[in-house]
Specification:
Layout lengths: L28 E6 L4 E6 L24 E3 L6 E9 L2 E7 L9 E4 L2 E8 L5 E5 L23 H6 L7
Antiparallel strand pairs: 1-2, 3-4, 4-5, 5-8, 6-7, 7-8
Length: 164
Amino acid sequence: MNARLSDYDYDLPRELIAERPPKRREDSRMMVLRREGQTIEHRQFAGLKTFLSPRDLLVLNDTLVVPARRFSNDGAIEFLFIGRICPRRWKCLVKPGRKMRLGASAQVGNAILRIEEILPDGERIVSLDKDIDLYAGGSMPLPPYIERKSDAEDNARYQTVFAQ
């Protein structure tokens, strides 16, 4: 199979984007693609078992989403910590990138973050002058199509039930 990134492009009408998840997880929506008839149905996740057969394989997402989104003290720069290299060195997504060029620094809490390297994909290697606790003061990174700030409810509801 030769998939191109453009194969995954689609229109997502604004009115179909849920800014908040349903109160009960089983009320979440799922899309059912019936290959034999080339049809699509929209159902609730509570009905998943009606679409499964004994030989089906379920792949579960057990990824734990860490509240690793931090802002500079002045609120001008967003850092999303995506990979720890060592205790005081991280790979980050930084917005806006044009303000945080090589050698630039910003204060986050009590720590000074400095851009050590800019990777080809735009990610940054960031050094910290002291340790930072992502869970204390960090916020949940919501997808860019969610147009609200994350809050305490997201720390629990944005996790998959299988998160470890």
